[in-house]
Amino acid sequence: MGKDSLWKIKPVAAVLSALGGFPVTRGTADLEALKRCLAVLSLGEPLVMFPEGTRQSGPNIHQLFDGAAYLAIKAGVPIVPVGFGGTEGVMPKGSKKILPKKCSVVVGKPIFPPQSDAGRLPRTATTDLTAELSAALQNVFDQAKQRVGQPN
Q1: What span, in angstroms and rounded, lies between the C-alpha atoms of 23 and 67?
Q2: Beta-carbon-side half-sphere exposure of residue 21 (alpha carbons within 13 Å)
Q3: Which of 127, 141, 77, 136 is nearest to 109 (CA)?
Q4: 104-107 and 2-3 strand pairing
Q5: E strand residue ranges, 32-92
Q6: pTM given for the model
Q7: What is the pLDDT of residues 23-42, one digit of tens each?
Q8: What is the Cα–Cα distance from 136 to 111, expressed in whole angstroms?
Q9: What is the pLDDT of residues 89-148, one digit of tens each?
Q10: Using CA of residue 41, residue 143, residue 129, residue 65, what is the dihedral sign?
């Protein structure tokens, strides 16, 4: 899934759609995008999300939205945290060029959502899972930065 403005650029939209991508309206609870996410997950397909809602910059993970945790709980699927290091040098914010710089990717251990025998989980389950994901993302992000020689 990607920000809806990417679909306004026809060649980019064609590539993203061919790869199975779909737009999401940022800054809102995009119910259509959530339904598409659940449909993808129900087929057993992977779903790539950036729970910060934007590209990372700086040494700390930005505050996460609850969407990833909500979907994991609703679909009963684990979240796999992935950290990217060195990407700020590859395509700085505002840049239209991709630069040949060293990057690193670290894949963390899956985080399994809570389950309830009684049916519904309390609202805090989503918030708690988001907090767990945030800590895991910070960990893999720090590891990825270390691999490319960036300070934490």
Answers
A1: 15
A2: 19
A3: 136
A4: unpaired
A5: 82-85
A6: 0.87
A7: 888 877 788 889 999 999 99
A8: 9
A9: 888 878 888 899 999 999 999 999 998 777 788 889 999 999 999 999 999 999 999 999
A10: negative
